[in-house]
Amino acid sequence: MNSSMIVVVAGASGFIGTYFRHRFEQDGWTVRTIGRAASNDATWNDDAGITRALDGAELLVNLAGRSVSCRYNARNKAEILRSRVETTAALGRAVSRCSAPPATWLNASTGTIYRHAQDMPQSEFDGELGTGFSVDVARAWEDELETADTPRTRKIPLRISIVLGPGGGVMMPFANLARLGLGGHMGAGTQKFSWVHMEDLYRAAVLLHMRTDITGPVNVASPDVVDNRELMRLVRRAYGARLGIPTPAWLLAVGAVLIRTESELVLKSRWVQPQKLLDAGFLFRQPELGRALMKIAKGQA
């Protein structure tokens, strides 16, 4: 990479953002960050500072947004929505004011925007959007990106599936259940699990910046989609758990209250097909869930 290339990462302190910042720097990019802390190049309450950070950058990657692993009460739902829509709006205002705006704006979205699907994969071309709070948030997030007045900047919503990587991220609760002997299937166990390794998410972002012919929403998920039964079997194998007691849906609902999260996060069937990436010839470095989990369990990237 040319060391003069500048990327702005918004939301750089999270699980994905930290990895992206490291990888961009590894590949020779100059990284500017936007976030809540004063240590960033710009903070969310400073439109002028955000504009300065973006001006002259080649690429903007927005990963900002509160974690959805919480109870969906009125306060948390408002914060989940606000943390996505308002940050996207702030970036839109700043990009529109830049004399040299980024060529590409990749804005996080979610594969959860699609319906509960067990009958067929959901691609960017024929996928059916779902209903409910999570889908409403995703729609509002993407609508805010679309309405941003940035004619010189190509905008792509990244419909990201469950992200796996060093440190485990969302897989750690699954690993802990497996270690306790509770790593059996959840609910019916037939719900699909779409996922992507962090490195492939990063590589997809770089590819999408380079491929100026790709427009509109892009699904970012491994083609290796498994159901929950297979997921938990692979988790048990990766973490050396011989037995796993299944968890019925009613017990998941009770447990979700106790650990202050939502059972939807494991019971919704997400079958995300990365058709645009496949059509672009993208090759996944971590295409198989079993191998990816084994590496993560060993602390490998």
Give an account of the 3D structure.
The protein has a single domain (6-297), classed as NAD(P)-binding Rossmann-like Domain (Rossmann fold, 3-Layer(aba) Sandwich), CATH 3.40.50.720. 40% of the residues lie in helices and 15% in strands. It has eleven helices and eleven strands. The strands form three sheets. It has a seven-stranded parallel β-sheet with strand order 3-2-1-4-5-6-10, sandwiched between helices. Strands 7-9 form a two-stranded parallel ribbon. The protein has a two-stranded antiparallel ribbon with strand order 8-11. Helix 3 (74-97) links the parallel strand 4 and strand 5. The longest helix is centred in the first third of the chain and has 24 residues, at 74-97. The two termini are 21 Å apart. The model has no long low-confidence stretch (mean pLDDT 93).
Proportion of beta-strand residues = 5-15%
CATH class: Alpha Beta
Number of helical regions: 11
**Biggest sheet, open or closed, and with what strands and sense?**
7 strands, parallel
Calculate Rg over CA atoms.
Answer: 19 Å
Shape: globular
Helical content band: 25-40%
Biggest sheet strand order reads: 3-2-1-4-5-6-10
Order of H and E elements:
EHEEHEHEHEEHEEHEEHHHHH
CATH topology: Rossmann fold
Give the name of the CATH architecture. 3-Layer(aba) Sandwich
Total domains: 1
**CATH homology-level superfamily:** NAD(P)-binding Rossmann-like Domain
- Ranges where pLDDT stays below 50 over 5 or more residues in a row are none
